[in-house]
């Protein structure tokens, strides 16, 4: 089996996402919080490879799917990761730059 999601076909990615979802659900039933988080992160990265990075633009703001009220301003895209800064409800931009899989980005914010 391949170890890099960039080498997977779309079908393999969808299969892997299903396997990871199952693992996360089992870990949740067993109360293993860290294993749930690890599998959910892997799932988001695998999911990012099913999305076109060209759909996202630098200097634009996007909603964060898992964190209502937060947005993310992209500085640049590298592969399936968006590098940028989180912005809270008060429009305060976090100082620390971070990389998020593009699968965590929602709709573009237009203002």
Distance N terminus to C terminus? 45 Å
Q: Low-confidence parts lasting 5 or more residues at pLDDT below 50?
A: none
Helix content: 25-40%
Question: What is the average per-residue confidence, as pLDDT, rounded to a whole number?
Answer: 94
In terms of structural class, how would the helical and strand content be classed?
alpha+beta
Rg calc: 15 Å
Number of helices: 2
Q: Mind summarizing the main beta sheet? A: 5 strands, antiparallel
Strand order of the largest sheet: 4-3-2-1-5
* Form type: globular
H-E string: HHEEEEE
SS elements, strand count: 5
Short description:
This protein has helices at residues 10-29, 33-48, and strands at residues 61-64, 71-78, 81-87, 98-101, 105-108. The chain has 111 residues and is an alpha+beta fold.
């Amino acid at each position: 089996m391949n170890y890099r999601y960039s080498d997977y076909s779309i079908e393999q990615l969808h299969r892997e996402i299903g396997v990871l979802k199952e693992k996360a659900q089992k870990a949740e039933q067993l109360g293993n919080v860290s294993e749930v988080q690890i599998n959910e992160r892997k799932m988001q990265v695998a999911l990012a490879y099913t999305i076109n990075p060209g759909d996202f633009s630098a200097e634009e703001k996007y909603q964060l799917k898992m964190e209502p009220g937060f947005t993310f301003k992209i500085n640049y895209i590298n592969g399936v990761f968006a590098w940028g800064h989180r912005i809270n409800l008060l429009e305060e931009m976090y100082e620390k730059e971070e990389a998020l899989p593009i699968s965590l980005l929602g709709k573009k914010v237009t203002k």
